[in-house]
Structure to design on (496 residues):
């Protein structure tokens, strides 16, 4: 039988610990056995699911991956859905993708069952599947569709990004090579498992390499810091919001506790930030506190990871590095020309074996997203002394004001240096004079008062005059999505 490479590689580490939790450990052999049992249960009387869609609603950990591998080994397409989504969001994902089965743990099965009964979708409670005699499983080839991940919608409903097993393998191999994963690695997993960051960058790379994963159902700051203090991890992957919270926790800790925790971070071989732009100030704060230089990378659901600062070499704050192994990147200017010079902005376009197949049932959107065989990311960047720097989204983070193209991310990074600003989001609002007015929405520290005039005065010498905010709104909280990332469309809605 031709087994998928990711799963076949587990046989190389049969007795090694794949998952270590507070109360249990599971070996790679257990993962193989459990996934075979779940694949058998999914198949029933069938020989092959033939790319039937199976939704996965299980917390991060051993059972999640066993179910994921079970879906793949049975010939199905995995659709991971958000544990905390609303019923209407679940309904959209299930109906748009044509899901036939939802695999869930007992708690999530109880929550989604009424919806599934209304939609005529079968619910499989994985906790009720017992070990038994696994049947012969189908042969799965790499060009089969493997997964549908829904992207965040802005002006329209989310689109399902379809990746094949070959796409997923290419994404894994690229990161394993670039970041030098090995069987000696130990990594915490607290990222949402309906997102490529958790699924590929952490879980799949670790399991490909024979490493050990320590799962958490959510980001538990105190528990994770205790484990860091105990030298539990060699790698750490998180989003910028988490690094901000860690900095705050370290600054508030006693001298003794801080030293012990910082020692744990300092001894890790690699720490990565992604899923949102990492402000240079946070990068520098983290290095000053721990001695660790965060590795920032760039990717998206459609391509996996495309760019990365180097494992060996300069990790430049504010930059996302160079193309990863097996990935080609180019910049295309608005006039259609290919950018060949540094410091000239253009849209990031990517091609390579990790680029997704298409959008589920969206042939027009799929066609529009490619320029020949280059995927159009919709992100603007410049090349600066060999490293790419993201300017922002064409539609969201690029502000056209007074004839200038401004990077909202650059302005945000500067504003975060203000002594009263805890968080901020910069957007462009329609303006008769400027086209778009640079608008800052900020959360202040301890609800301190902040006026536009004072902010503008502070910005002098820090930002070019055309980048200084023309409008200011102080709020108690910025709107975020499930990944903790600030959503610019929701920020704009504050002004409606």
């Amino acid at each position: 039988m031709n087994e998928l490479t990711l799963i076949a590689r587990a046989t190389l580490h049969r007795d090694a610990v794949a998952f270590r939790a507070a109360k249990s450990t599971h070996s790679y052999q257990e993962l193989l056995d459990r996934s075979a049992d779940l694949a058998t249960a999914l198949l029933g009387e069938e020989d092959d699911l033939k790319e039937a869609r199976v939704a996965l609603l299980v917390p991060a950990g051993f059972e999640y991956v066993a179910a994921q591998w079970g879906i793949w080994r049975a010939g199905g397409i995995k659709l991971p859905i958000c544990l905390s989504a609303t019923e209407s969001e679940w309904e959209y994902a299930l109906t748009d993708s044509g899901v036939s089965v939802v695999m869930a743990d007992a708690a999530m099965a109880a929550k989604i069952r009424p919806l599934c009964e209304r939609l005529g979708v079968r619910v499989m409670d994985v906790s009720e599947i017992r070990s038994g005699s696994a049947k012969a499983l189908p042969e799965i080839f790499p060009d089969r569709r493997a997964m549908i991940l829904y992207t965040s919608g802005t002006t329209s409903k989310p689109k399902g990004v379809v990746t094949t097993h070959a796409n997923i393998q290419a994404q894994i191999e690229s990161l394993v090579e670039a970041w030098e994963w090995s069987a000696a690695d130990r990594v915490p997993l607290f990222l949402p498992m309906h997102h490529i960051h958790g699924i590929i960058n952490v879980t799949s790379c670790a399991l490909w390499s024979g490493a050990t994963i320590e799962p958490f159902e959510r980001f538990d700051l105190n528990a994770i810091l205790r484990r860091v203090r105990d030298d539990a991890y060699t790698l750490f992957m998180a989003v910028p919001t988490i690094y901000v919270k860690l900095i705050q926790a370290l600054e508030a800790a006693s001298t003794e506790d801080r030293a012990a925790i910082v020692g744990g971070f300092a001894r890790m071989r690699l720490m990565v930030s992604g899923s949102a732009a990492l402000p240079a100030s946070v990068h520098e704060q983290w290095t000053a506190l721990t001695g660790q230089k965060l590795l920032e990378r760039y990717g998206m659901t459609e391509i996996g990871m495309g760019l990365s600062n180097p494992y060996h070499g300069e990790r430049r704050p504010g930059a996302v590095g160079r193309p990863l192994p097996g990935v080609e990147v180019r910049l295309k200017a608005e006039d259609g020309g290919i950018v060949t010079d540094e410091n000239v902005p253009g849209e990031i376009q990517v091609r390579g074996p990790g680029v997704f197949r298409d959008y589920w049932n969206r042939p027009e959107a799929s066609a529009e997203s490619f320029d020949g065989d280059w995927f159009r990311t919709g992100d603007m960047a410049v090349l600066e002394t060999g490293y790419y720097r993201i300017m922002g989204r064409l539609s969201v983070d690029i502000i056209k004001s007074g004839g200038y193209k401004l990077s909202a991310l650059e302005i945000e990074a500067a504003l975060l240096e203000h002594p009263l600003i805890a968080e901020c989001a910069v957007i462009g609002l329609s303006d008769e004079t400027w086209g778009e007015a640079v608008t800052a929405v900020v959360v202040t520290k301890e609800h301190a008062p902040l006026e536009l005039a004072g902010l503008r005065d502070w910005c002098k010498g820090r930002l070019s005059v055309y980048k200084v905010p023309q409008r200011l709104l102080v709020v108690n909280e910025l709107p975020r999505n499930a990944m903790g990332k600030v959503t610019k469309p929701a920020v704009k809605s504050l002004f409606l």
The radius of gyration is 23 Å. The mean pLDDT is 93. The chain is about 30% helix and 25% strand.
